[in-house]
Amino acid sequence: MAAGIPIEVTGLSKRFGPVTAVDDLSFTVQPGRVTGFLGPNGAGKTTTLRVLLGLVRASSGTATFGGTRYRDLARPLETVGAALDANFHPGRSAKQHLAVYATAAGIPKSRVPAVLTMVGLSEFAGRRVGGFSLGMRQRLSLAYTLLGDPGVLVLDEPINGLDPEGIRWIRGFLQSLAKEGRTVLVSSHLLSEVQQSVDDVVIISRGRLVRSGPLSTLQIGAAPRTVVESPDPHRLAAALDQAGLEYTEEGAGFIVEEPDPGRVGHAAFVGGVELSALHQVAAGLEDSFLSLVGDGGSEGTPGLEPVRVGGGEVR
Ligand SMILES: Nc1ncnc2c1ncn2[C@@H]1O[C@H](COP(=O)(O)OP(=O)(O)O)[C@@H](O)[C@H]1O
Ligand SMILES: [Mg+2]
């Protein structure tokens, strides 16, 4: 296996005529970790990856593998495994498809059955790709990226189209690739899709960096809340109203938009309400993600300022 090397994106911008798809984007991706490249549809993920892989030219800025552009890599397939715009000849079998690329890159043919086994497609090796499901095509793309046993993997929405079993499988698989020391960059428009398998996140919205760093730091942005329960929920609701606290009903109790349980407890005390539970809860991860990227569809997100590198960025 080739050594994992960092991916470095610096001041990257890409304009398509009037559309700015990527806007002064900077981030790094470390070896030995799975990094989720996240953002709503249209955020600029695929464009960033296409620039990184030399498929389109940057308007400005750079995207490199440890300082080397993709097109300057001596042995690209053995350095970076990437599956973008996967185009399969429908008449070819999975095995034939991979053999074509192996031959072109001077990779021993013995690698073909090896990678098909790794992605769980060995029993379909001789089957024509035209009859493959979306999930099987995703696995075949992954097999292709592994042909050269590269230290870096760049995967665009690899979980899209997988069935639940496939999703469980790919999560563990990506983690095992990172544990071997590889750099693993995986894009997704859904945090929930990757949150169980990523160590780090790079979040973009409208082509700009919103946040990057370990997944565990994501919750910092959204305020914790207080969970409160009473044997007499009606009186509790009245006490919360009386104190001017915002809340929503949740199961047997209420979630109060107040980080300090002491203030909620005091409101109950003032109202003479018995409590059966009172504690703080962290904001949900998906809530944090959505509050960071906005809804992604509308123009402008009030109150959302992109966090710039060198500014308040987490890492
Ligand atoms: N070849 C292109 N020509 C014009 N606009 C493009 C092209 N590719 C992408 N875009 C635009 O750039 C923006 C980002 O797209 P994309 O990188 O595909 O986002 P994502 O992968 O995050 O969904 C979108 O507004 C999209 O319409
Ligand atoms: Mg995309």
Q: How many domains make up the 3D coordinates? A: 2
**In terms of per-residue confidence, which ranges show pLDDT below 50 for 5 or more consecutive residues?**
296-315
- Strand line-up across the major sheet: 5-6-7-3-8-9
Quaternary organisation: single chain
Helix content: 25-40%
Can you describe this structure in just a few lines?
The chain is 30% helix and 25% strand. It has 315 residues and is an alpha/beta fold.
Structural features:
315 residues; alpha/beta; Rossmann fold; Alpha-Beta Plaits; 2 domains; four-stranded antiparallel beta sheet; binds adenosine-5'-diphosphate; binds magnesium ion; ATP-binding cassette domain-containing protein
Q: Would you mind describing this structure in some detail?
A:
The structure is a single chain. The chain folds into 2 domains: 209 residues, 3-Layer(aba) Sandwich (Rossmann fold); 57 residues, Alpha-Beta Plaits, CATH 3.30.70. The radius of gyration is 24 Å and the shape is elongated. α4 crosses α5. With 315 residues, the protein is of the alpha/beta class. The C terminus is likely disordered. The strands form 3 sheets. The chain has a 6-stranded mixed β-sheet, sandwiched between helices. A 4-stranded antiparallel β-sheet has the order 11-12-10-13, with helices on one face. The protein has a 3-stranded antiparallel β-sheet with strand order 2-1-4, covered by helices on one side. Helix content is 30%, strand content 25%. A hairpin with a 2-residue loop joins β1 and β2. It has 10 helices and 13 strands. The chain binds adenosine-5'-diphosphate and magnesium ion. Magnesium ion binds next to α1. GO terms for molecular function: ATP binding; ATP hydrolysis activity. This is ATP-binding cassette domain-containing protein. It comes from Agromyces mariniharenae.
